[in-house]
Design brief:
homodimer; alpha+beta; Nucleoside Triphosphate Pyrophosphohydrolase; Arc Repressor Mutant, subunit A; 2 domains; two-stranded antiparallel ribbon; DNA-binding
Chain lengths: 230, 230
DNA sequence: TCAAAAGTGTTTACCATACACCCATGT
DNA sequence: ACATGGGTGTATGGTAAACACTTTTGA
């Protein structure tokens, strides 16, 4: 290592992942119950320390897999939390991410440091360890902003989805009712939402058309800025 | 320090500040010329290492003052850059910020590690050290998004400003022409832009009304989400 | 035949856009 | 008087918002 670096202060660096999942028309978050002190038995956002040769993104994916059995999902940086006393063990600087997950695609399992993992509806969270309430609030706010600018909503749905599912997702994230007919008119104008020519089956009601997201068409349109005004 | 922490990997952590300033109807960035290796004589985004008892935000403000003589300005986190080999001296993880500055309020001065500081128009930057081109591009993109969601534009102007200045600022940041009459109609509808009942003087043309930003009124309006559609 | 969710059009009010001339001041 | 930037209104087209009934399926 360079001489210049040797005289600097060094810090342990962690990542914390707010895992959002959409199920039963609700937005949920996966939390773990801690096995160890500090905050033993408290619920917490999964996370852990960065290792020597990985980026923060790689570290976050690794921790996600180790702690919850969730693999290879969409991640976005939210914010760094750096208050010197935010962790009672000593100074830990943490980078928050949110992860977007289709909950049906994974069977969440508690890893070594956790006694349980569980999906919680975002409006009924338990008391959280450390400054994780702040991390959660910041992440949800960031999600609400990003969902209007980028097509991240599709990460929370199945590959093929109905317009009703799509609408309920936006209603859950933005926490407001949206008019069905107006929503569909806007969706129809988004050319990157394509009819898959398939329909649902096995439901107790009229089948619905299934749609797909086309990332190539999206890229073209998003060049000049884009705003999902819903 | 806690036993648990002792066994972790530790990293030097730095901040880099992309300093935006608005002058002569142009958006500029303050860069420093490095005195030392690596990248000796290259132009770079000012920044430095975090100390033991400061947050990243405090560290960024300190570095800004030490390296450029800019003090106590608006700062926003942009992104963390964590590729293990991004710094040839060894692993350095860096958090990028942008700073918004009214250039008339400061006389920028080179600190110890720099031979010069200089404002550069954003479309005529020199070759930059490290991964600072990537950091700059990411920061500009973030600024372009944030300026539509939050009233950060006012940080780049004087306390009292004319509507023409306000318009030129948006044109510079978004890099597009905006119709004067339509812009003014929209500005008139923003209740947090208040007439100061003063006018400019000493110009070679008709004096202009001066306006003020009212943060209290803004807070009220921004609760339900906000989008500067210009 | 009933329950459950899918699907569909019209009207109204507002807002974005495009566009060109007169006004107040300093020199 | 002229150069410089400040300031203003209208017509048009498009889109957001509000609103209720019919259709298709499974039970």
């Amino acid at each position: 290592m360079d001489e210049d670096l040797k005289h600097r202060s060094f810090y342990p660096l962690s990542v914390d992942c707010v895992i959002f999942g959409f199920a039963d028309n609700k937005l949920n978050v996966a939390l773990i119950q801690r096995k160890k002190e500090p905050f033993k038995n408290h619920w917490a956002i999964p996370g852990g320390f960065i290792e020597e040769s990985e980026t923060l993104e790689q570290g976050a994916q690794r921790e996600l897999l180790e702690e919850t059995n969730i693999k290879d999902v969409f991640l976005e940086q939210v914010h760094i939390f750096s208050k010197p006393n935010r962790d009672p063990r000593g100074r830990v600087i943490s980078c928050a991410f949110y992860a977007l997950v289709n909950p049906k695609a994974f069977n969440i399992l508690a890893g070594q440091d956790a006694s349980h993992v569980k999906w919680w509806p975002i409006n009924k969270l338990p008391k959280l360890a450390f400054d994780h309430k702040l991390i959660f609030d910041t992440s949800l706010e960031k999600l609400r902003q990003s969902i209007r600018i980028k097509p991240i909503g599709f990460e929370l749905l199945e590959e093929k989805f109905t317009l009703t599912e799509f609408q309920k997702l936006y209603e859950a994230i933005l926490d407001k009712k949206i008019d069905k007919r107006n929503f569909r008119k806007k969706a129809a104008k988004m050319e990157f939402i394509k009819d898959s020519n398939e329909i649902t089956s096995g439901k107790k009601a009229r089948p619905a058309k299934l749609y797909l997201f086309d990332p190539v068409i999206y890229k073209k349109h998003s060049q000049n800025g884009f705003y999902f005004d819903l």
